[in-house]
Design a protein that fits this description.
The protein is of the alpha/beta class. The chain is 38% helix and 20% strand. It contains nine helices and eleven strands.
Length: 253
C-alpha cells in the first residue's frame, strides 16, 4: 500500500513513516523539504499520485487559536481536495484526547475545527485522538525557556510515546476508514513533574518552574478532562521505560 504522511518529518510523523516502512508499505513524506507545501497546496497533487492512504500528522508551533485554526482547516481541506482528485481512499487524521472537554482553549478549538473540516470532505476519514506525548514536556520547555528557567504548566495527563502514536496511525491506515479512536499511555502524570524528570535524566542546567493552569480550563484539566476513558485504547511504554530508552535522545532542548 502507498501511504503519504503529511508532517512526516515531525515528531509523530517520522515515527509513522518508520512504522509504515517496517510494515512494508511504500511511503511518501509530504514536507516542504521535499517540495510539498500542504498549507498552500503546492506540489500536493503530484505527491498524492498513486497514494492509497494519507496520514495527517501535521502540527503548528503556535497555541494561538486564529493561526492554528486557519492552518489546520486549510491543510485538511487541501488534503481532502487533492486526495479526492488523486483517488485516495482513506485519510487518517491525528487529534487530541479531551479537546471537546476543554472548549475554552484556543488550540483545542482549532483541532476541533480541523476534525470538522476533514470529515466534511469526500474522502473517508478516521480520526485518532491521542493524549499528550512523552515528548511534550520537552517541547514546552523549549518554547518557554528563558535562560536557566523553563515555565511548565501543571497539566494532569496520561501521556503516550510518540512512537506508539505513529504505529497506531499506520495500523488505522490499513483498516477500514471511519470513526474516532482514542489512544493514551498507561499512567497518569503531571506534565511539570515529567519535565523535571527529563531535566534530571539529561543532566541539564535548567530549573523547571511549574505553574497552575488558571480558570475553568485549569479546573477541567485537574478534574481529568485530558485523561483516558473506558473507550480509550491504552498502550505503552510507560514514561519511565521510555525515558530509559533511545527515543529520549531525539529530544531537542
Amino acid at each position: 500500500m502507498r501511504i503519504a504522511i503529511a508532517g512526516g518529518t515531525g515528531v509523530v510523523g517520522s515515527y509513522a513513516a518508520d512504522a509504515a516502512e517496517d510494515a512494508g508499505h511504500d511511503v511518501v513524506v509530504l514536507a516542504r523539504a521535499g517540495g510539498v507545501n500542504v498549507q498552500t497546496g503546492d506540489g500536493l497533487a503530484a505527491a498524492l499520485d498513486g497514494v492509497d492512504v494519507v496520514v495527517d500528522a501535521l502540527n503548528l508551533a503556535t497555541y494561538k487559536r486564529a493561526s492554528a485554526e486557519r492552518f489546520f482547516v486549510t491543510t485538511s481541506r487541501h488534503l481532502q481536495d487533492a486526495g479526492n482528485r488523486a483517488g485516495v481512499r482513506h485519510i487518517v487524521s491525528l487529534s487530541i484526547v479531551g479537546i471537546d472537554r476543554v472548549p475554552t482553549y484556543g488550540y483545542y478549538v482549532a483541532k476541533l475545527a480541523q476534525e470538522a473540516a476533514v470529515t466534511q470532505g469526500p474522502v473517508p476519514v478516521t480520526i485518532l485522538r491521542a493524549t499528550q506525548f512523552h515528548e511534550f514536556p520537552a517541547q514546552i520547555m523549549r518554547a518557554t525557556r528563558r535562560g536557566p528557567i523553563a515555565i511548565v504548566p501543571r497539566i494532569k495527563s496520561q501521556p503516550v510515546a510518540a512512537r506508539t502514536v505513529g504505529a497506531h496511525l499506520v495500523t488505522l491506515a490499513s483498516e477500514q476508514p471511519g470513526g474516532t479512536h482514542e489512544l493514551a499511555g498507561p499512567e497518569v502524570h503531571d506534565i511539570a513533574d515529567l519535565a523535571k524528570r527529563i531535566v534530571k535524566h539529561r543532566n541539564l542546567k535548567l530549573k523547571v518552574l511549574p505553574v497552575p493552569v488558571p480558570g475553568k480550563r485549569g479546573a477541567r484539566i485537574r478534574a481529568g478532562a485530558l485523561l483516558a476513558t473506558e473507550a480509550t485504547t491504552i498502550d505503552g511504554p510507560a514514561f519511565g521505560e521510555w525515558l530509559a530508552g533511545d527515543d529520549v535522545s531525539r529530544l531537542e532542548l
